[in-house]
Amino acid sequence: MTTLDILFGAVGLITAASAVLAVTTQQLVHAALWLIVTLGTLAGCYLILGAELVALVQLLIYVGAVVVLVLFALMLTRAPIGRSPEQSSSAVQRAAAGVIGAGTTALFASVLLPALGGEIRTPRAGDTQGIATQLFGSWVWPFELLSILLLMALIAALAVSRMPTVSAAPGVSAQAAAPAAPPAPTVPAAPPVPSVSQVQTGPTVPAGGESA
Amino acid sequence: MIHLWLPLSLVCILIGAGAYGVIARRNAVLVLIGVELILNAANLLFVTMGSVRGDQLRTGHVLALFLITIAAAEMGVALAVILALFRDRGHIDLSEPGS
Fold this sequence. Notes:
Number of strands of chain B: 1
Oligomer: heterodimer
CATH topology of chain B: Helix Hairpins
Number of helices of chain A: 9
Structural class of chain B: mainly alpha
Number of domains of chain B: 1
Number of domains of chain A: 2
Low-confidence stretches of chain A: 171-212
Shape of chain A: globular
Number of strands of chain A: 1
Mean pLDDT of chain A: 80
Structural class of chain A: mainly alpha
Largest interface: A-B, 100 and 76 residues
Strand content of chain B: under 5%
Largest sheet of chain A: none
Mean pLDDT of chain B: 91
Largest sheet of chain B: none
Order of helices and strands of chain B: EHHH
């Protein structure tokens, strides 16, 4: 056992335990919070493996942005607070999922561990300058393609979120915005923007006009 | 010096937990959390191999950075799809048919 072994064992144990908790907890918000622990300790694993640039990017993007997106998705879909056992499937499906998950673990372990598991290596010291040179040298075209991919994802997310839904198109506005804002359905031509903005702009715009 | 079975077994555990989460959950956001775990397992394998195998192109680390970017883009689109689903159905329970 070397020092890196002990460090990686400790951090990896937290990662594995919080990953299992993130997929088994009965509370929705707790799942997202355990995901934070998993991703943060995984950044620690990268740090132990000598990849400090990847660790920092993991902290910035995953813990900083992706988990916030997950929490926003939970809040915008009115996730219940507290235990909600109905979020998991039936016991039969959970047992099948456990079997499949264990089978996946066994499959990958049977492939990876005999092939590479016996080796003892020294992780290369974090070479940020070398990574940056290669990233903007050899890998510059995939890097530019990734920027196009990000732009496409941005436009696609905007288009999907403004897409008129099937049930809301005939004027049946199938959600809770209808009782909250009675004058809202009289807005004729605008596509169904998210209901929060309708509720917000409905009362505030006339109030501002009267006070002025 | 590090024994390679430690990061590799962590990769296996993360993939198994992610697969369990994708199958066993009914809420769409929780399914996404399982997908994120699988992506992170792949990322850990990239970083491990990139750290212990010296190659001139730094393939493991660079591909790990690319994978993080792709995962962020996927997460944004997936959030938009989930919100559209919620506006349409009123719930994001994947086990129930749509209205």
